[in-house]
Amino acid sequence: MADPPGCCSTCATCLLCPYSCQWITPKKEKRKGLRTTKCDCSWFFFLFCVFLFTLVWLYFAIIILNDFHNFNEFIFKQKKLWLDWSQVLLIATSVLISYSSALLVLALCLQLCGQPLKLHWVHKILLILTALVVATAFTGLGIKWAEEWKSAHISLQATGPFLHIGAVGGMTLLAWPLASFIYRTHRTGLKVFLLLVYCAVMIALYLAPLGITSPCIMEENQLPPKPALVGHRGAPMLAPENTLMSLQKAVECEVQVFETDVRVSADGVPFLMHDDDLTRTTNVQAVFANRATENSTAFNWTELQQLDAGSWFTERKPFPTVESLSAADRNETKKQKIPSLGQALEAVKQSNISIMFDLRPENHSDYENFVNVTLGVILQSGIPLQQVLWLPDGFREQVKQQAPGVQQVYGRKRLENEKEPLLHINLPYQDMSSEEIRQYRQDNISVNLYVVNQPWLFSVLWCSGVSSVTTNACQVLKEMKRPIWLLLTSLIALQPSSTYLMIWIVVDCVSFLVILWAFFLLK
């Protein structure tokens, strides 16, 4: 290998020490005859692959934050342990990406300085462990949370143009160490192979925008109206879920619909509760220790009213927003009880918003009675029936006959031979493509998608033309005046797609010129 050009001995040694875990000066290197071998090149390639692998996982980790509260609830259901696992995920991912990034930067600097890439065995073991950890994470994601692959695909509609520019920039910067290596090595076969691979990757990146589609690349005057907000169990980031306080906070967030879950007590009183048991959102373990694991429908209304449905919120802190609660709000949470459906309907009626609910559990042997009891409470409440959105599929025809004014919301897409047209559907956001959303909008079908918490996701669905979204973060989405991609990328989103075509061509041309300059400069 040639002597290191343009790199002082101190710099070369400082770079070599953390990478090789050896304090080798250039003089010692010459005396020992150290060179970058084929094995060293293989380990550098492995390092580069691990870096890319970890970088992709970082992207996935950021994307799945939208749904991570579901994962926290799942773990609590299994282990009765509450922890914000999203923080663990982000910290672990940050450590892995920082480590692989640091090693890659060291390797590239060593190559520019003409130093041997002698990766220490400790780093080799840690890189293998990093690859195994990330592979395990991806495997677990595919087995237990497969719908997140759809979330990642949706995210590319928002981030695709920016990922393209970032990838072109990153690969362009690699031209310097690549040119340095090619001019130093005397192995013609390796030179040709690396150049062919690099050229193939760059050509693929230059042409990548041909496959990039984003609903937010449009004229500003083509932007659909902002989707209405549906409070998921109220405003669960600001108050204990499924309580009157949460409902009131949702009203302050200007939601148009309060989404909740209804169960029926042992003595026939419909009440608000999502989980099968009461352990996560009440102090049932302290009040009824021997019955804590029983189904919530096994308790009568008098027993349910003895429970504290709010203190858990400030104790477990299910969302980071709990830290910013005022003293008055903290005191208010301690006063929360499990509300009955009748109380919720009265609050909804006074606030002039709608209510949408599931009736649980669907597989209960007395489910028909649950439907009748719930309908009775609705009809007695005096709420205008058009403000009630009925989600349960069980005994739906019976509901239509007894309360024809109730709006029927379906948890499925329309069928080819639909007997009567669907007017409202409620689906996970992963189950509807942008094209389907546009088509349903043209056919005057109201589409509500759940659960949408992150601004990037709300922006994509907004551009697609969705009618409403169910959210935990109504206080965040309320403040959005336009999709963030329109806000942050005026050149791309506010102008026609021809402008994006121009940006794509300019970025590719600049990248090509910089690569040529790097090869000519180092020659």
UniProtKB/TrEMBL annotation:
Cellular localization per UniProt: Membrane
GO MF: glycerophosphodiester phosphodiesterase activity
GP-PDE domain boundaries: 227-481
Bilayer topology annotation: Multi-pass membrane protein
Keyword Transmembrane helix part of the UniProt annotation: yes
GO (cellular component) term, any one: plasma membrane
Name listed for the protein in its UniProt record: GDPD2 inositolphosphodiesterase
Entry keywords, A to Z: Glycoprotein, Hydrolase, Membrane, Transmembrane, Transmembrane helix
Source organism per UniProt: Pardalotus punctatus (spotted pardalote)
Pfam families linked: GDPD (PF03009)
TM region(s), chain numbering: 41-65, 85-113, 125-143, 163-183, 192-212, 501-522
